[in-house]
Every structure is written in C-alpha cells, then in structure tokens.
UniProtKB/TrEMBL annotation:
This is Ribonuclease E inhibitor RraB. It comes from Duganella dendranthematis. Pfam families: RraB. Residues 45-138 form the Regulator of ribonuclease activity B domain. It comes from the Bacteria. InterPro entries: RraB-like_sf, RraB_dom. Signal peptide: none annotated.
C-alpha cells in the first residue's frame, strides 16, 4: 500500500460533506439522482484528500480520466465523444476481462465544481457507450518559495475506497 492510499483511507465524509455535494450538484444543474450523487461523493473524497495534503486547488494542472469499455461496447463512439469534448487522448490499452481502457486528460483546476463539470458528463457518456468511468487522477500542486510544484499522481479510485 502506497502513502497516498494510506492518506486517503483516513478521510471520511460527514453529513455536512454530503450536503456540500448536493448543493454543488444543484448549483451545477446536473441533477441529484443517486448515481450522480455517488459520483460527486467520490470526487469530493479526492478533493478533500488533496486539500488535506496542502493542494492549491485553484492551480491548473493535467487531470487524467480513465474509462473501461468492453471490447464489444462502442469504443469508437466514446472515443469520438472524448475528442469532440476537447480532451487529449493519452492511450487506448487492452485491459483485463476483454475491456479497453481509454485514458484522456484536460487541463483544469481540482476544486469540486470544476471537477464535476467533467466527471458527470464523462460518467454518463461512458455508460451510454456500455462502459464504466473508473475515475480521475492528478498531481498534488503545492506552493513553494519559487512558485508552484507538484508530486505524484493521486487517483479517484483510491478516494472511492472511503467508508
């Protein structure tokens, strides 16, 4: 178990966090259905982990997303959607269980409202293509005497393991 996973496992979401997630969804007008709320709570766990470790959420950085689509799913349709949204495709790799992992990124901030403006549409598009959105990752951005610096990737998958 790496240090990031150890840190993430210490984060728990309170009732207040759940209300923050619901309010953010209402403000974004993306609906508050159960699947969407679950997605936002996973995103919130990662944002909280980043904050807890001194991240400067307002600093733009690469944010990478991961979607798994069965080889019998509509990989081409999803790939076209990703490109049409302006994302940069990093890779298409065969994964376990006859699935393909499509990884792609955008440059953006890691605050909750900015993150969900991407994760909710990605999650919905991946389901339409028969796939599953596996989450996102980014670098921890922190301030130094010389400006901003970063350290290794932190993924939403690790944040989703919260109780």
């Amino acid at each position: 178990m790496n240090n990031v996973t150890k840190i993430v496992k210490k984060i728990t979401l309170s009732d207040q966090d759940i209300e923050v997630a619901k309010d953010t969804l209402r403000e974004s007008k993306m609906g508050t259905d159960r699947k969407t709320l679950r997605r936002v709570l996973g995103d919130l766990a990662v944002v909280k982990m980043l904050e807890k470790n001194g991240d400067q959420l307002h600093v733009s950085r690469p944010i990478e997303h991961f979607v798994y689509i069965p080889t019998k799913g509509n990989i081409a349709q999803f790939h076209k959607w990703v490109l049409a949204q302006g994302y940069t495709v990093i890779g298409l790799n065969r994964a376990k269980d006859s699935k393909v992992c499509i990884s792609f990124e955008h440059i953006g901030c890691a605050n909750l409202s900015a993150v969900i403006s991407h994760t909710i549409p990605i999650n919905r598009a991946s389901r339409r293509a028969g796939g599953q959105y596996d989450g996102w990752g980014t670098f921890l951005e922190f301030e130094t005497e010389d400006g901003f610096d970063n350290c290794p990737l932190v993924t939403e998958q690790q944040g989703a393991k919260q109780s």
